[in-house]
Amino acid sequence: MSIELIVLDVDGTLTDGKITYTQNGDEIKSFCVKDGLAIASWIKLGKQVAIITGRNSKIVERRAKELGIIHFYQGIHNKQEVLENLLKELNLSMENVASMGDDLNDYAMLNASKLSYVPADASVYVKEIATEVLGAKGGEGAVREMIEKLIILENLEDDYLALWR
């Protein structure tokens, strides 16, 4: 059964986990453009991406829209429950899911997914249950690394490269 849906955490996965506040109280986050290109490519291949994050952020909402991510959930305490509901909506199962997170609030979701990936700087506890610990840190190309591993695993390399030829 193929991977049809990638589920991503944000802080520590799509970002380096740092949250910066300006003197005016504005929040600043940085995203890796390499991750963004891979996410957009995965979507162009007809696959789906979901963001499930515990925090609320207009910045993350903007990034999701830029990348064409339509399954976007913020302020989530139980990520696995949201994922299970999304799978019902999409008529998919956990066998179709690859997830990525970096900390304890991702534990249940990672454990339930067919494939689970964590950045190099993830919590030791999620590293223990992950399918694979990636070489890159969160916010530094870890999502790109995961997607390119999935592209190879799913035998989609020709289609992936054809997007850019």
Describe the structure.
It is a single chain. With 165 residues, this protein is α/β, with parallel strands linked by helices. It has a single domain, classed as HAD superfamily/HAD-like (Rossmann fold), CATH 3.40.50. Helix content is 39%, strand content 16%. The protein is built from seven helices and eight strands; from the N terminus they run E-E-E-H-E-H-E-H-E-H-E-H-E-H-H. The chain has helices at 33-44, 58-67, 79-90, 107-112, 124-129, 142-153, 157-162; strands spanning 5-8, 20-21, 27-28, 48-52, 71-73, 97-100, 115-118, 132-133. Helix 1 packs parallel to helix 6. The model has no long low-confidence stretch (mean pLDDT 97).
Name the shape in a single word. globular
> What would you call the structural class?
alpha/beta
What is the total number of structural domains? 1
Helix content: 25-40%
For this structure, what is the CATH homologous superfamily? HAD superfamily/HAD-like
Strand percent estimate: 15-25%
What is the N-to-C order of secondary-structure elements (H for helix, E for strand)? EEEHEHEHEHEHEHH
- SS element count, helices: 7
Write the CATH architecture name: 3-Layer(aba) Sandwich
C-alpha end-to-end distance: 28 Å
Task: Give a short account of the largest sheet.
Answer: 6 strands, parallel
Strand order of the largest sheet: 5-4-1-6-7-8
Average pLDDT value?
97
Total beta-strand segments: 8
Rg calculated over all Cα atoms: 15 Å
Write the topology of this structure:
Blueprint: E1 5-8, E2 20-21, E3 27-28, H1 33-44, E4 48-52, H2 58-67, E5 71-73, H3 79-90, E6 97-100, H4 107-112, E7 115-118, H5 124-129, E8 132-133, H6 142-153, H7 157-162
Parallel strand pairs: 1-4, 1-6, 4-5, 6-7, 7-8
Antiparallel strand pairs: 2-3
